[in-house]
Amino acid sequence: MVDRTPRPPPYTCSIVHAYRVDLRSDTVTKPSAAMRKAMAEAEVGDDWFGDDPTVSRLQDRAAEVMGKEAALYVPTGTMANQIGLRLHFRGPGHLVVAESRAHVATTEVMSSAALSGIAFRTVVGDARGRMSAEQVAAALLPDEPYDVEVIDLIAVENTHGHAGGTVMSVEDLRAIRKVAGEAGLPIHLDGARIFNAAVAAGCDVTEWTREADTMMFCVSKGLGAPIGSLVCGPAELIREARRLKILFGGAWRQAGIMAAAGLIALEEGPKRLHEDHARARRLAEGIGEVFPGAIDSSAVETNMVYVDTEAVGMRPLEAVRRLEEQGVGATLVSGKVRMVTHVDISDEDIETAIAAWREISRVAREEAG
Ligand SMILES: Cc1ncc(COP(=O)(O)O)c(C=O)c1O
Fold it and tell me: Over 70: is that where the pLDDT of 1 sits?
C-alpha cells in the first residue's frame, strides 16, 4: 500500500530541528575548515563575464577529471541536468528516454517540461534501476506510424538515487551506448554521485564518462562542498551550455567563493567516500536486526539506505516522524524511508541512528499491545 498522506512541504515542516544525526541527504554537509578558509581567500571575478579565476580553475580541473574538453560550473545539480538535456533537445514534442525512477524523469520532470518542453519516454528498469540495452532499443521504436525520430536523447543516472544509490555497470552503459550510436542519439549522464559509483566499483569515473556525450556531477553531495555542480562535455556544447546557464538565471557573479570549496571537494572528497559506504552498510545491518524484512542490506551499494517500513506494517512517513522525534533526520523517497551517509556522519552517529530504529520498534510493539 502506498502511503498517500500529504506531506508538509520542507519549508514549513517541524523544521527548525537540530538533528542529532542528519541522514536526510548527503547535501546537508557543512563546509570543512579548509573549505571555509579557501572561500574566505578566494580570488573572484564576475561569472556572467566568465572571468572568475577560481571558477575557471574548478571548471578546468573538472573537465580534466571527467576526461571531457570543457566544463561549466552551475549552482545546482538540477540546473546542470536541465542544461545537459536541453543541449541535445530539438524541441517540444520530442522525447528523452530515461529509466522510470531517474531523477530527471521524477524529481525534475516538471523542470524539464517548464524550462524546455521536454517529455520523457520511460523504461522500467529492474529493482536496482538498471535498464538493459534491449529495453532502450525497444523504447526507440516508434509507437505510432508518425512517431519517428522523436527521441532526441538517452539519459542515464549513476549512481541511481531513487533505486537505492545503485551503481550502473560500465558494461551496461557500453551496451546502451552501442544502441544509442546505432540510432545516432547522444547520451547524457546524470552523475550527481559518479564518485560514489567509482569508489564502489573500484574504477575511474572516466570508464562511464567516456560513454556519455555530456555528463554532470555535483560537488555539493558526497564530496562535501556547500554548493555547486558541473556540466561537462565537448567545448562547442559547453559554449552553448554557458548561454543556457545565463538563460536559466544561473550566472552567479562572484561564484569563485563557492568554487574554492568545490576545488577542495573535488580533490579530497572522493578519497573518503568508502567510509560513507561502510557506514551505510553498518546502518543497514543494524536496521535489519531491528526490522528483519524491511531491508536488504546486500542491496546497499554506496551511501544510501532504503527501508521498506510498509513491509513491517509501519507507514514510512510515520517512521520518518518518529525518527525525527529522536533527532534523527531521514526522508521519504519512493515510498521508503531513505537515509544517506556523508562526511559529517561518524560511526557513533550510525549507532545512534540504529538505536533510534530500535526505539521505534519498541514503541510500535508496545502500541500493538
Ligand atoms: C541523481 C540526482 N541528480 C540530480 C540531483 C539534483 O541536484 P540538486 O539538488 O543540486 O539540484 C539530485 C539531487 O539530489 C540527484 O540525486
Answer: no
In angstroms, the CA 262 to CA 250 distance is 17
pLDDT on residue 12:
42
- For the four alpha carbons of 260, 264, 266 and 269, in that order, the dihedral sign comes to negative
Residues in contact with ligand 1 by the CB-under-6-Å rule are: 76-78, 81, 103, 157, 161, 190, 192, 218, 220, 229
Ligand 1 atom nearest residue 79's Cα: 11
Query: How many angstroms from the chain centroid is the CA of residue 71?
Result: 18
Gap between the Cα atoms of 172 and 206, Å rounded: 15
3-state secondary structure of 269: helix
Q: Looking at the predicted structure, is the pLDDT value of residue 353 above 60?
A: yes
Q: Give the C-alpha distances (Å, rounded to integers) separating 181 from 212, 237, 296, 319.
A: 11, 18, 36, 45
Name the closest-CA residue to atom 7, ligand 1. Answer: 77
Task: Say if residue 130 is exposed, middle or buried (CB neighbours under 10 Å; 0-12, 13-18, 19+).
Answer: middle
Grid cell listed for 229: 555542480
Domains identified in the chain and CATH numbers:
21-29+272-368 (3.90.1150.10), 33-270 (3.40.640.10)
